Amino acid sequence: xxxKIVMYFHRxxxxxxxxxxxxxxxxxxxxxxxxxxxxxFDMYVANGxxxxxxxxxxxxxxxxxxxxxxxxxxxxxxxAVFDRSGGISFPPVEIGQKTLNSSEFKHxxxxxxxxxxxxxRFMPRSFVIKNQEELLSQLKSLEGAPLAVLKPAKGMQGKxxxxxxxxxxxxxxxxxxxxxxxxxxxxTSQGIPGITEGYHDLRIVVVNGxxxxxxxxxxxxxxxxxxxxxGGSIEEVPLEKIPSFILSCVQEIQAVIDEEFDFPLYSIDxxxxxxSQPFVFELNDQIGFPSEKMNxxxxxxxxxxxxxAKRASR
Length: 314
Description:
Elements: E1 4-9, H1 26-38, E2 42-47, E3 52-53, E4 57-64, E5 69-77, E6 80-83, E7 99-100, H2 103-109, H3 112-119, E8 126-129, H4 132-139, E9 148-152, E10 162-164, H5 166-169, E11 180-184, E12 201-207, E13 210-218, E14 233-236, H6 244-257, E15 265-273, E16 277-284, H7 297-312
Parallel strand pairs: 1-2, 1-6, 6-7
Antiparallel strand pairs: 2-4, 3-4, 4-5, 8-11, 9-10, 9-11, 12-13, 12-15, 13-14, 15-16
């Protein structure tokens, strides 16, 4: 019997082509489903909390048929799930071995203070901030620094990040019952040799224990934040051009992450200081598909399907 792989969203409008509005990423999604079908899997898209029942049952999913997706009324039992839901409400802990990624790993990626516990030696000097008093106290540790970074411990897409002089951050009013991270500023202005010349954010994507994709993001003029959602630009980095000192750091991080969290799909965001000193900004568990223009898009598809095939065989 053919194994069933489900790509699960919380809120994607489903139709015969649920990816029709994704522009240059549409063809990569279709290639993913086509290659999965060619490997002998029935490939589905499922949508909505109301259509999911634990542990692995989905209602009214759409089956990929070669060019489009056909609604399959009723329920199916998935053998593996590619979680695209965002947030941390899915998956349940008990189906972690069947999902890419597990609940435990998603919780790690959604809390920068937990990341600091696991990966602190790779990150800029950081402080957990829970209230106004802690902010003022820890800012004293950064006196004399030209800039510091204050960000929500559970923020995403660069939202809420403040980069300013420590004395100016002392006037920030924190939200009650929220945690923050205060960090030393990583000066990336000298770029990365052979990749970029100025301020940047280098993303390395790992899946199934393999470096699969890399791109560099640069901030818009007048900004220090490289997030694309905030106006930054993005350019693919050929894997063979990643400097060896960054590859060594990635391998050390993989030794912390891959075995413990079942070889997940994740990215490591780096800033390179003085052109050769890597610092980890954060991990991300929800990785956007590459565009068809990226040379590593096929490698991304292959490694992701390999990870799902392992889960389906359990």
